[in-house]
Amino acid sequence: MTIALTLVGYGCGIVLGLLFGLGRLADRRWISYPSKWFIDFFRGTPLLVQILLIHTALIPTLFGHSLGFFVSGAVALTLNSSAYIAEIFRAGIQSLDKGQMEAARSLGMPKGVAMRQIILPQAFRRMVPPLGNELIALLKDSSLVTVIAATDILYAAKVVAGAYQRFWEPYIFAAILYLMLTWVCTKIIAYVEKRFSTSYVPAKRSSLFSMKRSS
Questions:
Q1: What is the mean pLDDT of residues 110-119?
Q2: Relative to the CA of 102, which of 58, 83, 96, 137 has its CA 20 to 30 Å away?
Q3: In the chain, helix, strand, coil percent, each to 5?
Q4: What is the structure's pLDDT at 206?
Q5: CA 178 centroid distance within chain
């Protein structure tokens, strides 16, 4: 359950984070302002409060009843992670030289195509470490869904501790399980980072600047 909640929250968070990150950089205020408000709200309020609001207020209001702890937990983790991921995308895109976009636009490339084919591939290399850190943070934060009776690792530890009145063994074992999961995530992130740093060659960047100079 812990792995499922983390993967759903992180996967959907990347999609929403990309949308809100691009919205944050939009020139139109009716796009950039709502994106900024969304990011500020979910980064500025505790995840525990967000989980309780979504589980006890938002979903019952929209659907008339609760949809279960998994839906509530996944929605809360998705919205929370997307706010942080949006800032990662924004910072990664803005860290690139503005000449990248100017060179693409000078060659007649639409802004959306330039962002997809030129800017994002280069920015993603720089975003791998912070995106990995967000995955690890989300994995650990998923333990908060135990407050809505989600049957995750921490909930199982609480049940065992309450049943046998022994607290050292279940909670230490839960900590070890989280440590093992974060270790696996760390190794995967290190592999992805190494793979991108050695295999990606920014050919389009060189070609764009050479074409701009020649023109």
A1: 80
A2: 83
A3: 85, 0, 15
A4: 44
A5: 19
Residue 21's contacts (CB-CB under 8 Å, 6 or more residues apart) are 35, 85, 86, 87, 88, 89, 90, 93
Domains within the chain, CATH numbers bracketed: 2-214 (1.10.3720.10)
Inform me whether the pLDDT recorded for 38 exceeds 90. yes
CA separation for the pair 173, 175 (Å, rounded): 5
**Residue type at 100?**
Q
Buried b (16+ CB within 10 A) or exposed e, 78-113: bbbbbbbbbbbbbebbeebeeebbebbeeeebeeee
Residue 212 has pLDDT above 90, yes or no: no
- 8 contacts 77 by C-beta, under 8 angstroms: yes
Percent of the chain residues past pLDDT 70, beyond the cut: 92
pLDDT at residue 199, rounded to an integer: 55
- Give, as one character, the DSSP assignment of residue 167: -
Q: Which two tokens stand for residue 35?
A: 């994106």
